[in-house]
């Protein structure tokens, strides 16, 4: 981990816990938290080998439709079923999901929050202290009555999940905003780190589709805002305010992860060309400008805003202008991580045959 990544992790740690001890302006908190989370997730997404699975154009086109169906289903569920019952089921789901996220992906600041100190993530930190067979031997557990469903894990993964279990138990019992934010940030970092758009064409299709999705469900229906307020789970970040009538400002995780995976793609494009963070800087700047615009318009009209309305044009626009200025449009549009992964697998296979 490089120095600038450590600084970003520590800054995010400080910003996360700061409202517990000092008054932090919620608008500034939203902007800095969103930008730092994207920054941390982007650099964690840079790995020695390209991702083996990427999103296709067809999946990107379908994503807003699937998201709309899910959103409407949740809206109807909250309307016709007890809100407490729905949230109880969702809490159980996110309890398990949170344990996995805390075990695998959280950087040093979040592990500190869960009373564990390590260098990067909990699992790699404890592996070296455990016997090799604990790290390598897989345990397979099959669901009763559904024998085709199975879960594979190692003993070291169980050990790594213990602190996360206690942390998620605290979240489930107290629903404290800090626990909510730590889990939400874990999901964001994991999403940006592990999801790959594959190409900028696919990314543009996805962002443009969700641009329309966000505008429709926020401006033309009460569905998005209603679900966000009813959904008592870490699908949004909560920022304490001094207003008793509105104790928290909210930012949906999708407003971080969706643009974040596009910005991360720009960083990996720079790395693949062996150059400094050229297009990453422009895409990241576009994201920051988009978040700032969202906050300005929200405060001006005193109403909820579809963040992607401002973030998507800013991210794509800043990157496009920079790319056109440098004359790299062809190279950027030709970049495809799925093809890179396939070619590397073919090279590895052919080298084995030669041996």
UniProtKB/TrEMBL annotation:
Subcellular location: Endoplasmic reticulum membrane
GO cellular component terms given for this protein: cytoplasmic side of endoplasmic reticulum membrane; lumenal side of endoplasmic reticulum membrane
GO biological process, any: membrane protein proteolysis
Bilayer-crossing regions: 63-81, 93-118, 204-228, 248-267, 279-301, 307-325
Principal cellular location given in the protein's record: endoplasmic reticulum
Species the sequence originates in: Rhododendron griersonianum
Protein name: Signal peptide peptidase
Membrane-protein topology: Multi-pass membrane protein
Single GO MF descriptor: aspartic endopeptidase activity, intramembrane cleaving
Recorded family membership: Belongs to the peptidase A22B family.
Lineage of producing organism: Eukaryota, Viridiplantae, Streptophyta, Embryophyta, Tracheophyta
Domain of life: Eukaryota
SMART domains, per the entry: PSN
InterPro entries on file: Peptidase_A22B_SPP, Preselin/SPP
Keyword set, alphabetical order: Endoplasmic reticulum, Hydrolase, Membrane, Protease, Transmembrane, Transmembrane helix
């Amino acid at each position: 981990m490089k120095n600038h990544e450590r600084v970003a992790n520590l800054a995010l740690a400080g910003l996360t816990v700061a409202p517990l001890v000092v008054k932090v302006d919620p608008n500034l908190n939203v902007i800095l938290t969103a930008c730092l989370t994207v920054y941390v997730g982007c650099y964690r997404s840079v790995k020695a080998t390209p991702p083996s699975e990427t999103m296709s154009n067809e999946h990107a086109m379908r994503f807003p439709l699937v998201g709309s169906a899910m959103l409407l289903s949740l809206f109807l569920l909250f309307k016709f079923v007890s809100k407490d019952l729905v949230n109880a089921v969702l809490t159980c789901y996110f309890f398990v999901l949170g344990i996995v996220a805390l075990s695998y992906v959280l950087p040093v600041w979040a592990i500190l929050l869960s009373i564990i100190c390590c260098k990067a993530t909990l699992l790699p930190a404890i592996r070296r202290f455990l016997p090799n067979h604990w790290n390598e031997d897989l345990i397979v557990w099959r669901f009763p009555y559904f024998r085709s469903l199975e879960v594979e894990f190692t003993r070291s993964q169980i050990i790594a999940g213990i602190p996360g279990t206690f942390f998620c138990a605290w979240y489930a019992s107290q629903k404290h905003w800090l626990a909510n934010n730590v889990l939400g940030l874990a999901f964001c970092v994991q999403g940006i780190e592990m999801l790959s758009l594959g190409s900028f064409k696919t990314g543009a299709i996805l962002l443009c589709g969700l641009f329309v999705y966000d505008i429709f469900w926020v401006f033309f229906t009460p569905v998005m805002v209603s679900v966000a307020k009813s959904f008592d789970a870490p699908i949004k970040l909560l920022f304490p305010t001094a207003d008793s009538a509105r104790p928290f400002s909210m930012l949906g995780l999708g407003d971080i992860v969706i643009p974040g995976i596009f910005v991360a793609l720009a960083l990996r494009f720079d790395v693949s060309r062996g150059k400094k963070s050229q297009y990453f800087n422009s895409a990241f700047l576009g994201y920051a400008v988009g978040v700032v615009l969202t906050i300005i318009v929200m405060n001006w009209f005193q109403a909820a805003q579809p963040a992607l309305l401002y973030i998507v044009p800013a991210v794509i626009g800043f990157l496009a202008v920079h790319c056109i200025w440098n004359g790299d449009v062809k190279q950027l549009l030709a970049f495809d991580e799925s093809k890179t992964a396939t070619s590397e697998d073919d090279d590895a296979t052919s080298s084995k045959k030669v041996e």
